[in-house]
Amino acid sequence: MPGKYPGGRARTSEVSLCLHRLHAGNVMEMGSCREADRESVASSLRVRVEDTVFTVDRLLLTRGCEYFRALFRSGMRECRQEEVHLKGLRAHGFLIMLAVLRGERPALSADQIIDAAECAAFLQAETLARHLADIVSSDNCLLLLYVAAVYGLLELYHSAALFVRDMYEDLKDAAQGLPPELLQYVESLSPRSFVAMGTHSPSMELLQDTFRTLCYLDEGEKDWKYLTDLPIDASTTMAGVAVLSNKLYIVGGVRGVSKQVVESSFCYDASTNQWTTFAGPSQLRYNFTLVGHEGRLYAIGGEYERAIMSSVEAYDVVAGSWSFVHHAPRPVAHAASATAMSRIFMCFWLPMETTDIYEYVPGQDAWELVTTLIRPQSYGHCMVAHRDCLYVMRNGPYADFLRCLMDCYNITTGQWTAIPGHYINSKGALFTAMVRGDSAFTVNRMLTLEYSIGGGRWKPRREMKGLDVFTKAAEI
């Protein structure tokens, strides 16, 4: 089961929806680091690229490029020079790299992508390579796949190939222009599949609890198919649900009307069709937000003994341990979240009119207020990301939950846009939206609807069967 999941999680009292992939040489030689060289690392350096000279902080280059880390720590004569001449690079590519190292996230044209990929490979600039992976879209995925193969950027190559595979039906004709070995690699991957589950609370093993069923969407047959069953002790009622590295995680949840917290957590690996258990957060919690991001699960806020909390814990998947990180800006329960451009965003609302969007920055262990949306008698219930846009679904005028309105926030430009029209919200369907490629999917018991995202709005594209767990249980 190759690949990784870039999205987040969506949950309502009706159904949880998530995404899986089912089944299927220019660096100088390094020497020993010398104590005398450390002072030189803290100074600026002139870097000549083509006919342009850049004056750059050495610490910035050290943090972002393996090339310069090796140079400055090598003890070689070059590490003490005030100017370095880089041959074989384009100045524009180096300029893009500097912008990314400073924290900018520029949009790039086709020519700029080629220059940036060359620079990322030559200087082994992992931050720049990661930014290229973040901007993969239907407009540039084939180009990014090709240049990643040419320059040996393996992670970018894999990310672009996964994106092409997910949108293969739309890109199939254009993809025929790829070299045969690239096309073969794309076709060897498995596209992401939607996985859904009902709201389940643990019960006796002998009971045939239909809500324990997990299903996946067979888009060829436009129907939901049986995948597996939840473990007996697992709960999806007020639990945190997320996908990380293509594994499904269920954390917390409650059993019974007394809301007794389930202390164990559960992980499902579709490649082996096996469930494993692991410890839950140190602070018992339910009705919280679970976000998977770069090897960690973040349990944000939630409730315990009917008190809303602001505490946040991170689970390191490799280390197998939980640790507290910086508290959320204020107590929050069941908050909408999304990841865009490898960044974590969350909605904090103050009913009935204010929706604050905060970003959690793992590297700084800090929360930053990004923007505030004020809409009379309305607040955000669900948020999904597409490219560098956050789409916030909210109830209609006068608390009309049958009609959803949407607003779009672009994290690059910092601008809000009201999406025209309204969207029918049947039993929370739009509050379980998930994005894959240029499509958004919503699901309820009657209908699974695919929207195409583009042109400043969501347009209905395809209808499939809804997820009725009772009917499915009878068919299995």
TrEMBL record:
<dbReference type="InterPro" id="IPR000210">
    <property type="entry name" value="BTB/POZ_dom"/>
</dbReference>
<keyword id="KW-0677">Repeat</keyword>
<feature type="domain" description="BTB">
    <location>
        <begin position="43"/>
        <end position="110"/>
    </location>
</feature>
<dbReference type="InterPro" id="IPR052392">
    <property type="entry name" value="Kelch-BTB_domain-containing"/>
</dbReference>
<dbReference type="Pfam" id="PF01344">
    <property type="entry name" value="Kelch_1"/>
</dbReference>
<dbReference type="InterPro" id="IPR015915">
    <property type="entry name" value="Kelch-typ_b-propeller"/>
</dbReference>
<dbReference type="InterPro" id="IPR011333">
    <property type="entry name" value="SKP1/BTB/POZ_sf"/>
</dbReference>
<keyword id="KW-0880">Kelch repeat</keyword>
<dbReference type="Pfam" id="PF00651">
    <property type="entry name" value="BTB"/>
</dbReference>
<protein>
    <recommendedName>
        <fullName>BTB domain-containing protein</fullName>
    </recommendedName>
</protein>
<dbReference type="InterPro" id="IPR006652">
    <property type="entry name" value="Kelch_1"/>
</dbReference>
